[in-house]
Amino acid sequence: MTKIGYAGYRFPPVIIQQAVWLYARFTLSFRDVEDLLAERGIMVSYETVRRWVKHFGPMIAADLRRRRPKPHSTWHLDEVFVKIDGRLVYLWRAVDAEGEVLDVLVQSKRDKRAALKLMRKLLKKMGFVPDEIVTDDLRSYGAAARDLGISHRHQRGRWRNNRAENSHQPTRRRERKMQGSRVRDQPSDFCPSTLPPTTPSTSSGTSYQQRRTGRSEPRPCKHGARSPPRHDRD
Known about the structure:
This protein is α/β, with parallel strands linked by helices. The chain is built from 8 helices and 5 strands. It has a 5-stranded mixed sheet.
């Protein structure tokens, strides 16, 4: 197992991991994470947080997947449409009976070929055939299961697939949070790719407000109160 390297970064791994966790776990923007870290005396720009999430996010997620135990033998499959770069696509998602996300796949259609691609990828990735595969009434799932010879394990029902339907909720919340962004960079987290390049490197620790004005000024809060001034901490 390859160890995640944090060499060359100004901040210790625990701060980088905390920033990535805040963005991935909760429906927060990069500026929200910047403000939360600033409340704890950690001066990091939102652009630095974006670079951390883009660079370390996939590696941290892969490391967590390797550590988790074998998934439940009941899988729930579902698809939902999303807009990426102004184009309507389908986000296919597979979760187990405990709500753990097994895999996510973006495809342009929701036909038999798309369902077959998702199932084959899941079977190869997990290394075993589940006892039960639960889907909605989309016929593409049944046709794909017949081709793979697992139709006897396939269960259909609109209300039986609530586990997968609930798994789409974080995606919808992220979409609403990023509604003002015209371009989405990655379908897994809907990161905006049009943010201004205000940070020359990921090791920069000064905030965007300080670089723009050259001084540390208090920011107005949402309800009119003023936050305490920020100070550089090297």
